[in-house]
Structures are given as structure tokens and as C-alpha cells.
Amino acid sequence: MVRKCLLINLALAAFSCPLLCRAQADTSTNVDSAIEIARADMRAGKAAIVGEAMDLSDVDAAAFWPVYRQYEYERSKLEDGRVAVIKEYIDKYPNLSDAEAKSMANRMFQYDSRIATLQSRYFKKFNKVLPALTVTKFFQLERRIDLIMDVKIDSALPPLTAAQQAEQPN
To answer: Which residues, 6+ apart, have CB-to-CB distance to 114 below 8 Å?
Structure first.
């Protein structure tokens, strides 16, 4: 089990890092295509990790994968909003105004809320076709993947500095 967890962490690190590295290296006209390619790579890698970690029986897999694909489709639509905020932050950094920062923070809070609502809805859908322990295992894995992805993305973004904050009017 520990070996499987290590493998999952390494795989996540390998496929998540190129997202912002590619996006930051390209010009703004190519950022959209670089981000979309990276997102497609991440979705494929995530599905492989989920398949490996869940270790589903044939019967459970037949019930799981159709619901999972629908969940990921809906989730990717929500993630479009998150990507838009990240792109805006990259474009406007380091000259981000107080109003822009507030707007971006509010949009990220809305994204987090919508993701939580989606997960709650799909927790019920998964529970209709799979045992609760299997569903809970999936959402635990999902949470870990999200945490790793967030760390990778956040570590690639430039932080707001204390000097920038001092320059901004309240």
C-alpha cells in the first residue's frame, strides 16, 4: 500500500508540473493552448492513477467509470473558471490592484463552493451504484490529488509580496 501511494505521488508530480511551466514560458496567445494541453494530460494521468489506486473489481468498475467520466466532465467545466482566474493573475502580476485581487479571491471562493457542491452531489450518485467504503475511498483519493495539484500550481505562481500590499490603497 505504501508503495502504491508513493507511485501515485510521483505520477501526480510528473504530470502536474508542466501545466504552469509551459503556460509561463509561452506568449499570451499560446497560453490557452498550453493550458488546455496540460489539462488534457492531467485528466488522462489522473484517470490512470484513479484506476490503479481504486483497484476495482470488474463489476464495480462497470458501475464506477461512467459516473466518474460524468463527474470529471462537470468538474472540468467548473475548473474553467479557476483557470481563468489563474490566467488573469499571471497576466496582471505584479501590477494587481486591490479591486482585482478582491475579485479574484471571491471567484476562487465561488469555485471552491461549487466544487464542494459537485462532490456532494456525486457522492450520492456514486453511493447509488457502489458500496460506501469504495465511494469514500475515491473521494479520499480525490482530495489527495487535489491537494497535490494545488501545491504544484500554487508553487509555480508568483506570490504577492508585503511591499506590493503596502503600495495598494485600502
So the answer is: 78, 81
